[in-house]
C-alpha cells in the first residue's frame, strides 16, 4: 500500500523538486549561451578564413540576408582583440553590445575597449538615456553628437561594417578599414562625453553661451544645428533625416526653437541669427575629455 506523506514531508518533496527544476533550467540557459558563443566563434573563423584580399577574398561585400547580417554582428565580440568602434548603433547592435562585452571578456586576456557614438536626440528619451547610462556603467565609452554620417562598426583594424538601410557592407580592404577608423576618430573628437552632455539640467548642455547676444538665448546643441542648417537652405524634412528624428519630433523642435528666439517664423529666426553671428559661427567652447 502507498503511504500517505505528511504535509511537512510533502512540502519538503515539492521544494526538492522545485530546486532540481531550477538547477536544470540554469544548466539549459548556460548551455544555450555556450552554444551561442560557439556559433559566433565558428562564424568568425569562417569570416576570417579568407580575409586577405590579395588571396582572392573580396575587399567589399554586400550582405542582404538578415540571418547572415545577424550572425555577422553577433560574431563581433568573438573576433575583437583590442577595441570595437561603433557609430549610431542600430536596434540590433544596441542589444548585442552587452554580448560583445561578455564574449570578449571570456576569450581575451585583456578586456576589449568599446567606444560608441550616439545621436544627441537619444537624450530626450528616458528609456534611451537609461540604456546609455547602463552602457557607461559597463565601462563602455559613450559620446553623443547631433549629426552622424552613417551606422558603422569597426572591429580592431580587421574589418568594418557599414550599415545603410537596406543591406550591410562588409569591408575587409585594409586601406578602407583604416579610412573608416580615421573617420570614426574624427567623429569621436567632435562628439561630447555622455556625462558632460548631461551636466546641464539633465539634458543637452546649452552651447557656447558667451557675453552678449547669446547669453539670453542659451540654445541647445540641436537647436544650433537646426539654425545653421536653415542658414544653408535646408528644409525641415532634410534636417529631420540628418538628425534621425521623426517629422513630428522635428515640428516640436522647431516650435521650441522659435519660442526660444521669441519669433514666429523661420524668416524672423534668420534675422535674429544675422544680428547674433556667433550663433552660426561659434564652435564648441572646449574639447571633450579624452
Quick summary:
The protein is an alpha+beta fold and 290 residues long. The chain has helices at 7-47, 66-74, 76-79, 91-107, 126-137, 174-190, 194-198, 221-231, 236-243, 247-261, 266-275, 278-281; strands spanning 60-63, 83-87, 113-119, 141-145, 151-155, 159-163, 168-171, 192-193.
Describe what you observe in this structure.
By secondary structure, the chain is of the alpha+beta class. The chain is 53% helix and 13% strand. The protein is built from twelve helices and eight strands. The protein has an eight-stranded mixed beta sheet with strand order 1-7-6-5-2-3-4-8, with helices on both faces. It holds the Pfam family GerE.
Radius of gyration: 25 Å
Task: Characterize the overall form.
Answer: extended
Using DSSP, what is the number of strands? Answer: 8
Determine and state the CATH class of the largest domain.
Answer: Alpha Beta
SS summary, helix count? 12
Side by side, the strands of the main sheet go 1-7-6-5-2-3-4-8
Ranges where pLDDT stays below 50 over 5 or more residues in a row are 50-56, 201-216, 282-290
Provide the β-strand percentage band.
5-15%
Organism: Streptomyces paulus
GO molecular function: DNA binding
InterPro entries: Sig_transdc_resp-reg_C-effctor, TrmB-like, Tscrpt_reg_LuxR_C, WH-like_DNA-bd_sf
Protein name: Pau32
Amino acid at each position: 500500500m502507498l503511504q500517505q506523506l505528511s504535509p511537512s514531508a510533502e512540502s519538503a518533496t515539492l521544494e526538492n523538486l522545485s530546486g532540481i527544476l531550477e538547477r536544470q533550467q540554469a544548466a539549459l540557459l548556460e548551455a544555450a549561451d555556450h552554444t551561442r558563443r560557439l556559433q559566433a566563434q565558428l562564424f568568425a573563423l569562417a569570416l576570417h578564413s579568407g580575409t586577405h584580399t590579395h588571396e582572392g577574398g573580396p575587399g567589399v561585400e554586400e550582405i542582404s540576408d538578415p540571418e547572415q547580417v545577424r550572425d555577422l554582428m553577433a560574431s563581433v565580440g568573438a573576433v575583437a582583440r583590442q577595441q570595437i568602434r561603433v557609430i549610431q548603433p542600430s536596434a540590433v547592435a544596441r542589444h548585442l553590445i552587452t554580448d560583445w562585452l561578455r564574449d570578449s571578456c571570456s576569450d581575451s586576456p585583456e578586456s576589449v575597449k568599446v567606444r560608441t557614438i550616439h545621436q544627441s536626440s537619444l537624450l530626450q528619451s528616458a528609456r534611451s538615456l537609461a540604456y546609455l547610462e547602463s552602457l557607461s556603467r559597463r565601462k563602455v565609452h559613450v559620446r553623443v553628437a547631433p549629426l552622424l554620417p552613417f551606422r558603422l562598426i569597426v572591429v580592431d583594424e580587421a574589418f568594418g561594417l557599414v550599415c545603410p538601410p537596406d543591406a550591410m557592407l562588409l569591408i575587409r580592404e585594409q586601406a578602407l578599414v583604416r579610412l573608416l577608423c580615421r573617420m570614426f576618430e574624427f567623429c569621436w573628437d567632435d562628439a561630447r562625453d555622455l556625462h558632460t552632455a548631461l551636466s546641464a539640467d539633465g539634458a543637452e548642455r546649452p552651447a557656447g553661451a558667451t557675453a552678449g547676444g547669446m547669453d539670453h538665448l542659451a540654445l541647445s546643441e540641436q537647436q544650433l544645428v537646426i539654425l545653421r542648417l536653415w542658414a544653408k537652405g535646408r528644409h525641415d524634412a532634410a534636417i529631420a533625416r540628418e538628425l534621425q528624428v521623426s517629422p513630428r519630433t522635428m515640428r516640436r523642435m522647431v516650435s521650441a526653437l522659435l519660442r526660444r528666439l521669441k519669433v514666429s517664423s523661420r524668416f524672423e529666426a534668420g534675422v535674429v541669427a544675422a544680428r547674433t553671428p556667433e550663433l552660426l559661427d561659434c564652435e564648441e567652447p572646449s574639447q571633450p575629455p579624452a
